[in-house]
């Protein structure tokens, strides 16, 4: 059974077409992340699901009911907002209880549920405080508490961590993942942060320009991107893209470098392609090349240590590409190294369509 | 972003309709009514309601008393407004820095503004009394002999009296608004100007003035319009006299409508004033971006 | 308003500034003092030459006369008219402002039109309204003046409340909508509490405007709902022994305003500056 089903959803703002035909079905209990660059329509999509924006065309079904024209409060959803949306004139307890009071839940029941939610989030000692007396992380917990206390069918998160500092963001990410396991509820989560998307999602819907570019598990999208955009959006450091042509079962780069053609790709002889190489798939060469790998000599241009790893810029195919080595494998620019490129995990893209071959 | 879903689509109209209804009642209705009646020949003393064409409007142009009253209004405005502005600004500067008991002093200074203009007029009527009022008494101290000035009767003194009262009542309004505006000026800007060696006037001209200008122009607009419709203070002090010497546009309209009972002619004046002000004000509001 | 010095000044400058400030306060407060003083003076003191600067003893005879004659009832009329119209203006004005801010109802044109109504000269409006009220039989009735005061206060209320409502984060309202509130509940449970200080500041000024009105009351009241401002002018021009009445009536009409303003003072400075700054 699916908790959320979108069919042919469109959203126009005057002449601006923000959401251009989204079809999406989210199975019960799944954690789905809507990710994409700013302006891709992900927040608009979430707000349309919530009923805060009116759909221009298409339908929204929640829990099997068509709610396209229903009020937000009749959709059985709870939402966590980017800026927490806490009422400054109510204390933490009343903030969490707000939705239950609005729905006329009995006060003994409210008390039980508020306290349970507070315990779950570790904010039981803060119930008498006011939002202005809380830290950013605590406010975010209260905001999440206010959503989970509602026990809704569908939980919507709109970039909930983007106002927190890096350390806190990591902590809260773990917290949200744990809550999902405990509650087992369906979650739709919007973020522009690909790491949040990769770590939290059961499934990622990568949006671009009002459309879903690719839908799948995080590993699917990472390993088998459907388009150049997906390949470039996920992964850090970013994937390297090199212009090349296919000749006689080999990939020929601009500077004449020949690389083995990955197996099972229907590339036509003589076709121009874009070769996508993830920095993680370029390593310092070992004794001998594994099948499908290529080994080359190169001169290091730039070295950026990140702690456990080191990012290295090396010239290849007429441009400077990024590779990621283990720390201390390379230390200084100008160093001569042999690199090993895992061509079995390389991506070939048709430059005409930007689709992966 | 507008956030409104289908079932609540009419909610926004429910919210605004009572206000619109009431505003039409006092805004549009008088305008249309004045327009219609101004083309007729209605007075409250006769029952003639025949069509008069543009006769009433033609009369406007030949009504010397009307143009005189307009002149009086403008005269009061062009003297009182700059004085209120400059005095208010100077006072705001005076109170900008730390000053013991500032809160109390500011509260006391604001008192004239919150009392009724009619009470203000009445108060100054008592103050200006030629024999029992303290003003002549105080002037007498400086002059060295008793001064029996007839402030509300003497043609040479009525305007000073009116303008005095007006300035006394409304300078605190300017003062309070400009004090708030000056307090909001980013101090790092004026300090930067000082470090750059800017004198007070330069810093004021190029840093402070641009910062307070939006607020100041709103205050000028509000006070300017209030001065244009000045009625209460004059009614209390001179009632337009001596003769028609201090009759302003509001006083004249009142006299035409409620003393002379010239219904149609008053309607023509009212229409002219409303139409004129609507155009000027709408232009000013758009120009100043107030509706944004 | 912070007390951080704009320009560093020496102590002597402070003393000088203090002297000027004190002088200004004396000038601006003296007329009000004089009004109060007269209201407590005996006729002999009022008409003494040279003037007596303060009453020898506080006596309330001038006020007692107003109550005995029933003139003091006009203060009650003012109170009813000003408070009821303020209440209505606040209700209708706030929801209209909310509609303008949140849903951009009518676009910029409607907002401009509403603000421009704030600028209308009362006398130009009062004349047609008077003829209309004669026809309706509303002259000298509470309902007639309350409707007029309400309508005349609306542009101000809408203007001010727009500024306050714009400051409320949209998320708070959206969150309430999702949590189970309907539109009216959002207004009641989120918007009003968030705009609380703005509501108070605006209500005070609205009350003072209506309370201080003279022209509408002059034209539209006769005896039944005559306001204190009209009553004061009835003592003009008569014999000079009406001085005590002018003063006492004025003081009666001024004290409620002073009390209101003093009680809600902490909302006012913000109210004035906000209204001006936000436009």
Topology readout:
The complex is a heterotrimer of chains A (357), B (292) and C (279).
Chain A lengths: L1 E12 L2 E12 L3 E5 L6 H9 L6 E6 L2 E2 L10 E4 L11 H11 L4 H15 L14 H13 L5 E5 L7 H18 L2 E6 L2 H7 L2 E6 L2 E6 L1 H6 L4 H6 L6 E8 L2 E4 L4 E3 L11 E6 L4 E3 L8 E7 L2 E4 L3 E8 L2 E8 L9 E7 L4 E3 L8
Parallel strand pairs in A: 3-8, 3-9, 6-7, 7-8
Antiparallel strand pairs in A: 1-2, 1-4, 4-5, 9-10, 11-12, 11-14, 12-13, 14-21, 15-20, 16-20, 17-18, 18-19
Chain B lengths: L10 H28 L16 H8 L1 H31 L7 H13 L2 H11 L6 H10 L14 H26 L3 H9 L4 H29 L3 H6 L11 H10 L4 H26 L4
Helix pairs in contact in B: 1-12, 2-12, 3-7, 3-9, 3-11, 4-7, 5-7, 7-9, 8-9, 11-12
Chain C lengths: L10 H30 L2 H4 L14 H9 L3 H31 L3 H11 L4 H15 L5 H25 L3 H10 L3 H12 L1 H17 L2 H6 L7 H7 L8 H21 L1 H14 L1
Helix pairs in contact in C: 1-13, 3-13, 4-7, 4-10, 5-7, 7-10, 7-14, 8-9, 10-14, 12-13
Descriptive account of the structure:
The complex is a heterotrimer of chains A (357), B (292) and C (279). With 357 residues, chain A is of the alpha+beta class. Chain A is built from eight helices and 21 strands. Chain A has a six-stranded mixed sheet, sandwiched between helices. Chain A starts with a strand and ends in an 8-residue tail after the last strand. The model of chain A has no long low-confidence stretch (mean pLDDT 91). Chain A folds into two domains: 2-226, 3-Layer(aba) Sandwich (Rossmann fold); 240-349, OB fold (Dihydrolipoamide Acetyltransferase, E2P), CATH 2.40.50.140. The longest helix of chain A is centred in the middle third of the chain and has 18 residues, at 166-183. Chain A has helices at 42-50, 92-102, 107-121, 136-148, 166-183, 194-200, 218-223, 228-233; strands spanning 2-13, 16-27, 31-35, 57-62, 65-66, 77-80, 154-158, 186-191, 203-208, 211-216, 240-247, 250-253, 258-260, 272-277, 282-284, 293-299, 302-305, 309-316, 319-326, 336-342, 347-349. Chain B is mainly α. Chain B has helices at residues 11-38, 55-62, 64-94, 102-114, 117-127, 134-143, 158-183, 187-195, 200-228, 232-237, 249-258, 263-288. In chain B, helix 1 (11-38) crosses helix 12 (263-288), helix 3 packs across helix 11 (249-258) and helix 5 crosses helix 7 (158-183). Chain C folds into two domains: 11-59, no CATH class; 66-278, MetI-like fold, CATH 1.10.3720.10. Chain C is 76% helix and 0% strand. Chain C is built from 14 helices and no strands. Chain C has helices at residues 11-40, 43-46, 61-69, 73-103, 107-117, 122-136, 142-166, 170-179, 183-194, 196-212, 215-220, 228-234, 243-263, 265-278. Classes of the chains: A alpha+beta (357), B mainly alpha (292), C mainly alpha (279). At the B-C interface, helix 1, helix 3, helix 4, helix 5 and helix 7 of B face helix 1, helix 4, helix 5, helix 6 and helix 7 of C. Chain A: Keywords: ATP-binding, Nucleotide-binding, Transport. Chain A: It holds the Pfam family ABC_tran. Chain A: Involved in beta-(1-->2)glucan export. Transmembrane domains (TMD) form a pore in the inner membrane and the ATP-binding domain (NBD) is responsible for energy generation. Chain A: This is Sugar ABC transporter ATP-binding protein. Chain A: Residues 4-234 form the ABC transporter domain. Chain B: The chain crosses the membrane at residues 12-40, 70-96, 108-127, 157-182, 203-222, 265-285.
């Amino acid at each position: 059974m699916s908790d959320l089903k979108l069919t042919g959803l469109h959203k126009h703002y005057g002449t601006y077409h923000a959401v251009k035909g989204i079809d999406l079905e989210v199975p019960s209990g799944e954690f789905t992340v809507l990710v994409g660059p700013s302006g891709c329509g992900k927040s608009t999509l979430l707000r349309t699901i919530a009923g805060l924006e009116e759909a221009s065309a298409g339908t929204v079904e929640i829990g099997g009911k068509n709610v396209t024209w229903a009020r937000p409060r009749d959709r059985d959803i709870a939402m966590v907002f980017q800026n927490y949306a806490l009422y400054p004139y109510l204390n933490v307890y009343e903030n969490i209880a707000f939705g239950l009071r609005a729905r006329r839940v009995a006060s003994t029941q409210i008390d039980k549920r508020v306290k349970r939610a507070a315990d779950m989030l570790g904010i039981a000692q803060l119930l008498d405080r006011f939002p202005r007396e809380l830290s950013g992380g605590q406010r975010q917990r209260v905001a999440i508490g206010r959503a989970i206390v509602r026990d809704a069918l569908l939980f919507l998160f709109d970039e909930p961590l983007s106002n927190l500092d890096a350390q806190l963001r990591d902590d809260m990410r773990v917290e949200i993942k744990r809550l999902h396991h405990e509650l087992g509820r369906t979650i739709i989560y919007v973020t522009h942060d690909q790491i949040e998307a990769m770590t939290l999602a059961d499934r990622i819907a990568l949006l671009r320009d009002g459309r879903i570019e690719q839908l799948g598990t995080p590993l699917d999208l990472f390993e088998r991107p459907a388009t150049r955009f997906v390949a470039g959006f996920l992964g850090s450091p970013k994937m390297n893209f090199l212009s090349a042509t296919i000749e006689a079962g080999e990939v020929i780069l601009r500077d004449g470098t020949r690389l083995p053609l990955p197996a099972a790709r229907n590339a036509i002889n003589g076709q121009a392609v874009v070769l996508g190489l993830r920095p993680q798939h370029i390593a310092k060469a070992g004794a001998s090349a594994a099948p499908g790998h290529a080994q080359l000599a190169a001169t290091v241009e730039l070295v950026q240590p990140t702690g456990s790893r080191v990012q290295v810029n090396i010239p290849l195919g007429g441009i400077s590409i990024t590779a990621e080595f283990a720390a201390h494998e390379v230390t200084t620019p100008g160093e001569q190294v042999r690199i090993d490129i895992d061509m079995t995990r390389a991506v070939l893209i048709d430059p005409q369509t930007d689709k992966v071959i | 972003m507008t956030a409104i879903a289908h079932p609540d689509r009419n909610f926004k109209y429910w919210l605004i309709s009572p206000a619109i209804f009431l505003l039409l009642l006092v805004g549009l209705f008088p305008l249309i009514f004045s327009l219609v009646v101004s083309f007729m020949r209605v007075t409250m003393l006769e029952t003639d309601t025949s069509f008069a064409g543009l006769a009433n409007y033609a009369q406007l142009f030949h009504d010397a008393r009307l143009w005189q009253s307009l002149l009086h209004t403008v005269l009061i405005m062009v003297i009182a407004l700059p004085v209120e502005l400059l005095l208010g600004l100077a006072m705001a500067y005076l109170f900008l820095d730390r000053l013991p008991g500032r809160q109390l002093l500011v509260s006391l200074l604001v008192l004239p503004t919150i009392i009724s203009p009619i009470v203000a007029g009445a108060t100054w009527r008592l103050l200006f009394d030629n024999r029992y009022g303290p003003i002549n008494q105080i002037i007498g101290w400086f002059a060295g002999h008793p001064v029996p000035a007839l402030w509300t009767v003497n043609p040479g003194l009525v305007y000073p009296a009116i303008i005095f009262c007006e300035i006394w009542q409304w300078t605190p309004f300017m003062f309070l608004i400009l004090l708030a505006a000056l307090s909001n000026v980013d101090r790092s800007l004026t300090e930067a100007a000082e470090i750059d060696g800017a004198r007070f006037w330069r810093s004021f001209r190029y840093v402070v003035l641009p910062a307070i200008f939006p607020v100041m122009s709103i205050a000028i607009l509000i006070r300017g319009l209030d001065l244009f419709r000045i009625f209460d203070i004059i009614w209390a002090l001179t009632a337009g006299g001596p003769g028609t010497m201090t009759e302003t546009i509001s006083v004249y309209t009142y006299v035409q409508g409620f003393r002379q009972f010239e219904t149609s002619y008053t309607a023509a004046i009212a229409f002219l004033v409303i139409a004129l002000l609507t155009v000027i004000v709408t232009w000013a509001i758009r120009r100043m971006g107030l509706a944004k | 308003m912070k007390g951080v010095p704009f320009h560093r000044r020496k102590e002597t400058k402070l003393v000088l500034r203090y002297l000027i400030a004190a002088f200004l306060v004396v000038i601006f407060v003296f007329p009000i003092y004089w009004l109060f003083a007269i209201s407590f003076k005996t006729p002999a003191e009022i008409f003494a030459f040279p003037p007596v600067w303060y009453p020898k003893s506080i006596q309330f005879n001038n006020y007692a006369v107003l109550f005995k004659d029933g003139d003091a009832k006009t203060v009650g009329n003012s109170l009813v008219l000003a408070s009821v119209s303020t209440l209505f203006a606040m209700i209708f004005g706030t929801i209209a402002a909310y509609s303008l801010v949140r849903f951009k109802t009518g676009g910029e044109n409607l907002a401009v039109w509403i603000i421009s109504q704030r600028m209308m000269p009362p006398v130009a409006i009062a004349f047609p309204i008077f003829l209309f009220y004669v026809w309706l039989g509303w002259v000298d009735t509470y309902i007639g003046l309350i409707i007029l005061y309400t309508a005349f206060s609306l542009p101000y209320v809408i203007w001010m409340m727009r500024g306050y409502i714009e400051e409320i984060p949209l998320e708070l309202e959206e969150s309430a909508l999702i949590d189970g509130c309907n539109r009216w509940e959002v207004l009641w449970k989120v918007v009003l509490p968030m705009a609380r200080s703005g509501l108070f500041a605006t209500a005070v000024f609205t009350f003072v405007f209506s309370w201080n009105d003279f022209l509408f009351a002059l034209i539209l009241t006769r005896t039944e709902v005559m306001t204190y401002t009209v009553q004061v002018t009835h003592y003009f021009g008569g014999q000079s022994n009406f001085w005590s009445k002018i003063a006492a009536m004025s003081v009666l009409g001024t004290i409620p305003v002073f009390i209101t303003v003093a009680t809600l003072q902490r909302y006012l400075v913000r109210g004035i500056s906000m209204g001006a700054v936000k436009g």
